[in-house]
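Researcher: First entry.
Model:
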Amino acid sequence: MPADLTRVTSGADTPRRRSEKSRTAIVTATRELLLERGFDGLTIEAVAARAGVGKQTIYRWWPTRPALVADVMLEDADKILTSVEHTGDLASDLVAWVRKLTATLTTARGSAMLRTLTVACMEHEDTAVRLRAGFSLPLHDSVRTRLLAEGIDASTAESAADAIVGGVVYPILSDAQSYSRRRAELTTRLIVDSLGLKR
């Protein structure tokens, strides 16, 4: 079989594989640069240089810098978003969920991601809409859904979910290094206790 035909039929270095390799390199470079420089310090030029691709390759998939950041952030968010378990003990279920969230968001990578999400949402409305739908809303809904399953009315569940998620996220944004899982657990228990549920 001719060498050229062998190369084509073996699938080695096909355009699809080259494209996927470039896309992976771009996502990895963006993630690293966000961790090192934050949203404000990230440029398409820097991503292209680190990924070893041309700027046009990036713009082929992502029309703007915020669009690129949103995709990378949402890819990472999928690893954080989990549903609250339903064991029959509301406080224990929510505390376990908050414990995992806190452990993730207080790592260097997690807190950097949270800061980037916040800045990107403040500066770019289109990006904010995507990040709220893909990250903020699922976090809130996970807690709200568990509260509703306990028979708590909708408006109370909405506010309690605000308090639990906000009670964890805000202190981490302020000072991730000093925030502890014990504090997150205490905040959650205080909110659950305030609901006055019969035990």
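Researcher: Second entry.
Model:
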Amino acid sequence: MKRIQWHDYFMAQSHLLALRSTCTRLSVGATITKDNRIIAGGYNGSVSGEVHCIDEGCLMEDGHCIRTIHAEMNALLQCAKQGVSTENATIYVTHFPCLNCTKSIIQAGIKTIYYAEDYHNHDYAIKLLNRAGVHYEKISFNPQHIAEYLLKA
């Protein structure tokens, strides 16, 4: 049997994490890796212990839900909480990171972003990534492809 490729493996993990999302607008998952090892994962949702958008609706301000912490930020904060370095790491995200997450990714020393779907790709975020020398790349992800691996196992 053929082994699953790293991109498929880590992007599948991000999609699984997105299934834990408590956001009613978009489910996002993020997986941070280093040396082909998962060091953190996150999904978008409320602050721990707070109410969730799926239970009480979004808390909207200027067109954004202020209740939600983005998946990328949750993964970065998990690293910070556990004292795990993200220097030269890679992040796999179900959707292109927003501007604020892009800035945090750069500041955290992550050098590569792989994402599966475009989502309001901000021009300034792209400019920052290019200036910082962070490689970003949209990679194809087909959940059916993963299902085929599972059926063969």
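Model: Note on the second entry: The first helix runs from residue 6 to 18.
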